[in-house]
Design a protein that fits this description.
Layout: H1 7-15, E1 22-28, E2 36-43, E3 54-61, H2 70-88, H3 92-95, E4 105-106, E5 116-118, E6 121-127, E7 132-133, H4 141-158, H5 176-190, H6 198-207, H7 214-220, E8 227-229, E9 238-241, E10 247-250, E11 257-259, H8 261-272, H9 290-304, H10 310-314, H11 316-337, H12 349-366, H13 368-380
Antiparallel strand pairs: 1-2, 2-3, 3-6, 4-6, 5-6, 7-9, 8-11, 9-10
Amino acid sequence: MLPEDGPEPLAAIAGAFDLPGAVESVAPLGSGNVNDTFLVVSRGGDGEVSGGPRSRFVLQRLNQRVFPRPDLVMANILAVGEHVERRLGRAAPLLAGRRWELPRVVRARRDQRPWVIHGDDFWRMLTFVETSRSFDVVAGGAQAWEVGHGLGLFHHLISDLPPARLADTLEGFHITPTYLAHYDAVLVGAGAASGNGVDHCRAFVEQRRSFAPVLEQAKADGLLLPRPIHGDPKVNNVMLDVDTGRAVALVDLDTVKPGLIHYDIGDCLRSCCNPAGEESSDLDAVRFDLDLCRDVLGGYLAAASGFLTEADYDHLLAAIRLISFELGLRFFTDHLAGDVYFRVDHPGHNLQRALVQFRLTESIEAQAAQIAGLIEELRAHPPAPR
């Protein structure tokens, strides 16, 4: 969605950032559920108005209903970016010639702040990860391995960043008991809502209510420790090189914060291991693919096994099950609340999304023994980087 006063102000907003040349074009980019995102092409440099090389950037209007402190969001992105830049110089053995980058913050031309304010809107700009692309659904084991490896590299590179350096910009994010409490409150307002999958979803949540605090209880018991996390490492946030197919970046860093890495691992597996994708309209096609799970976890552990504890491994299965349940709970709650958080394309969209995640949860539960065996196998013999 463009600003109310049309495309010209949008180009002017892009031009307020410290670009190498004039703004040539601004076009919508991606299909995110929260922020408004645009691809900016800048052409020229060194004072040129036209001609010269093109450079591409990502311009975003942050949703301040979701991120009430966008200044802290940007502080987190800067802190992670600076830390990763320092670590990359010492990570040569792990990277083994692999290209790896994070989007860099572009500052405002006038005051060098990492954002621009236009009316009531908060805008920021990041560099575009060139010669890369993302996918909504993985296209096989090699891609799944790379997505897992990308998350593992990210975790490895920020594993020694003190969590206290990061602000908690989304309090309650990925805290399943908090989502359950919100669901209960919304359910009161929804009254006797039923039919069209609602009854199934309500029963599904009730049957798993006692499972919701499994990771938070482990944290409270001191078994799992907060670390820096990405917060939303679904498959289309991992960029793959268009020539080599290797993971080269993790994008959409708004949700970076202190948390449990299990939320990241579970979300990555939830996103990658359902070949039907989370927008599927065919529930019978939804399943948790064990072969893809092996590849994602293998790629992850090839980069991240060095800092995982025994307790971390012990809670991986719970994380895989919990995050699909949690997302389904969030979709279902938003449906009952009137679709106030996630963008929807049609009535019942969030309900269908919830049904997909709950079907995925059932598939995980049915294969729990096999997933546990796979985790033990990879724990005993972590794969080497490829």
